[in-house]
Specification:
4-stranded antiparallel sheet, globular, Alpha-Beta Plaits, 98 residues, 31% strand, alpha+beta, 3 helices
Length: 98
């Protein structure tokens, strides 16, 4: 598995637009996409973190190169204060319950 953890700040008043864009991406279900978790800071409600997991690095890279993903990211970028801080890497452990 492979993915990214990103830290970003959403402009005030853009939370509902961010939620809609997130749901649009989930509905598209990119090939190889496995999970996404989005967190909002308790101490700073404009700061968010997301952890996204793909089946493998190729799936992750294919999605990043997909014109639909690039269009989606361009729309999301309009809601952000600045470029996200990205941390890509191999998922070495994952645990969850259903």
């Amino acid at each position: 598995m492979f993915g990214t953890v990103a830290r970003f700040r959403i402009k005030k008043g853009m939370e509902s637009q961010f939620d809609k864009l997130t749901r649009d991406l989930e509905a598209r279900r990119p090939a190889g996409w496995m999970s996404a978790n989005i967190y909002r800071s308790k101490n700073d409600p404009q700061e968010y973190w997301t952890a996204v997991v793909y089946r493998d690095e190729a799936s992750y890279r294919n999605n990043a190169d997909d014109p639909e993903q690039q269009k989606w990211f361009a729309e999301m970028s309009k809601l952000l204060e600045s470029e996200p801080e990205w941390h890509d890497g191999e998922v070495v452990h994952s645990a969850h319950t259903h």
